[in-house]
Amino acid sequence: MAITLTDVAAERIRNFMASRGKGVGLRLGIKTTGCSGMAYVLEFADDIEDDDTVYEDHGLKVIVDAKSLLYLNGTELDYTREGLNEGFKFNNPNVKDTCGCGESFNI
């Protein structure tokens, strides 16, 4: 499986990276937190570690650490606008349940 980007997410990431002016890609991970146990982490990556897995989609690198890959494999990253809210949306086939506020999930 892989980590993929929608066209809209890729364009948004490309714009963010251009504004930032540096970096090798986008780091996608998870952290333990919230009502359901895990939450997504998105940040710019300036380097690639030895245990990282790198996916390329739409000409962009998505970097995932080994621990997070177990939970994120097969995820599609999208960017959506709903009313006044906008942001990245994770279409993760591994998720079994999410908390009521939508900030955390479990597998």
Write the layout of secondary structure elements.
Layout: E1 4-5, H1 7-20, E2 25-33, E3 37-45, E4 53-57, E5 60-64, H2 66-72, E6 76-82, E7 85-91, E8 97-98, E9 105-106
Parallel strand pairs: 1-6, 2-5
Antiparallel strand pairs: 2-3, 4-5, 6-7, 8-9
- Describe the sheet with the most strands: 4 strands, mixed
The average pLDDT score comes to 86
Shape: globular
Going by helix content, strand content and strand pairing, the class is alpha/beta
Q: What is the chains' assembly state?
A: single chain
* Secondary-structure element pattern, one letter each: EHEEEEHEEEE
Low-confidence stretches: none
Strand order of the largest sheet: 3-2-5-4
Beta fraction: 35-45%
Helix content: 10-25%
Strand segment tally: 9
Verbal overview:
It is a single chain. This protein has 107 residues and is of the alpha/beta class. It is built from two helices and nine strands; from the N terminus they run E-H-E-E-E-E-H-E-E-E-E. A four-stranded mixed sheet has the order 3-2-5-4. The longest helix is centred in the first third of the chain and has 14 residues, at 7-20. The radius of gyration is 14 Å and the shape is globular. The two termini are 17 Å apart.
Main features:
single chain; 107 residues; alpha/beta; 2 helices; 9 strands; globular
Quick structural summary:
Helix content is 20%, strand content 45%.
